[in-house]
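Data deposition worksheet. Section B asks for the primary sequence of the deposited chain exactly as it was used as input, without tags or linkers unless they were present during the calculation. Section C holds the resulting structure in token form. Section D is free text for depositor observations; keep each observation to a single sentence. Incomplete worksheets are returned to the depositor.
Section A, Depositor: J.P.
Section B:
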Amino acid sequence: MLVILHLFALFLLVGLGFYVFVADPRKRANQTFAAFIAFLAIWTTKDLVFWNFYPRDSTAGWWVSASFITALLMQYAMVVFAWVFPQNARTPRRRAAVLFAPGLVFIPAALVGLLCVKAGFDSGRFVIELTILAYAFAAYVYLLFFFGAVILFQKYRRFKGSQQGQQVGAIIWGLAITGILKTLANLVLPYFGYFELLPFSAILVLPGVLIYAYAILNFQLFSFQTALNQFRLFPLTYKVAISIAAVAVISFGVFQIPIVWWAFRNGMDAEAWRRYLVFSVITALIPNLVLLLLVLRTVSRPLQRITLAAVEVAKGAYGTEVDLRKSNDEIGLLADSVNEMSRKMASDIDELQRLNDQLIHAEKLAAMGTLAAGVSHEVNNPLASISSLVQMLRSQEGHSPETREKLKMISEQINRITQVTRDMTNFARSRPAAKTNVDVNAVIKTALRLASFDKTFQDISVITELAEGLPTVFADEDQLQQVFLNLFLNARDAMTGNATLKPEQGRKSHHLADCMLTVKTSKTGDSISIEIADTGIGIETAAVGQIFDPFYTTKPAGKGTGLGLAVCYGIITAHGGRIAVESGYFDGTKFVITLPIDH
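Section C:
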């Protein structure tokens, strides 16, 4: 029965220490608690061996020495824990060196047997006779115990009323329970000749240890939420430890027990030992291979795949992802992070390319604006003189009808040139935007009302799907109205046959009843989205990337300057938005504008 209790205590201590340490390996309190548990596990192993297996008379001396040394090491760990918990503070090294210095004397003294005169059994009863040095050793151990308790009590008063104060208070209770039980079993009762609780000394500390662990883990050691968290993130250390333990236990039951029975069934002679050693070595290869496969499957192969994916990303294959089965350990998190990083890099590269294209386009607009301003200035002055002379000639009498017709044609062409130069001047002149909080739906309605004054536009079916309750945008209302009106009139031209068509293609819509303009607004994330779609001829795929370039137009000669969409592009980008086009021959055209919401 005693050996079962010792084994139970040993396994519980090892499991508890491992659990607390892995919960946060970098936290000093968890590290110190793990060290304390390790010393306590040594104490339990010492009692397990002494009280259950070896001749106790001949080994009582080393048991006493080991008990004193292990008790001292546990108090060292307890004092360090009191220093670092709960703030995760550093250990004061100089103070620790002074406080722990007596151990340099006591530990060697215990190793050479200077702590007891006699230890063993007399008539079945355990007896022990200690030296004065042993009492000094015990006094030093209790000094450390009370020193650590005082530090924790001071911290309890400092953090009283908080969760940290509750944690420290629980640990003080655990210290009190452990100190009382250990003192009764190891000192008080043996002083009166009652040694029956000595074999149970290691078991008596378990309640205090459970309280320590419970407090360190924020009172969540036994909570359902903690169990769920452990399953959500099941550390790789757990997996490896469980794999090793499982393989060891299974191989012991499957191989070692049958080999021992087969080898020693006729006695423990040399031949039996030879059989046992040979077949134990052979069968040991199987669990080792199993462990190797588990490690390869759990650690090596996933890391290799992550490495290959990282190398591909480093070579420029942005967006490459790790082909790995999802797992809830550190490798699984690493793989998810690498995949997310790769996807984000691919997205960022695309965004950089878009910004670069936008910058190039802006540079083109700036250059064309400068050129347009110069050309307009140089052309307008002589053009005004020519226009004046033509008006004078037209006002004179005596011209033949043919001459008057020619003068009229000259005047019309001058007006065309004047319109072109006016467009170029407007394109070059970038007036500052008068931005206010603007209702996009209201601007669209105004632009549609202005477009409806056009006789041809009145024959087009207009469908509006304007989302209600849209947030406002910080923009220049007049400039936005200019953009929408330009797009509406472009859609009119595309649907009523004013766009350039190849002779063999003809016109998409032969009847005005087929012409339909759809305007939609919606909220998308932190932006307002405006879609303007028509059922017109559409734009050739090769030309889609050029329609925002200055002076590029699909309209017939004399019907457009190619500056309208360039101006629209400049206005939208100046407002921090985007304008894109989706089109193809005979598929209609859809412009998508996004504008940031005013926060």
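Section D:
The domain at 434-596 is CATH 3.30.565.10 (Heat Shock Protein 90).
Residues 330-395 form the longest helix (66 residues).
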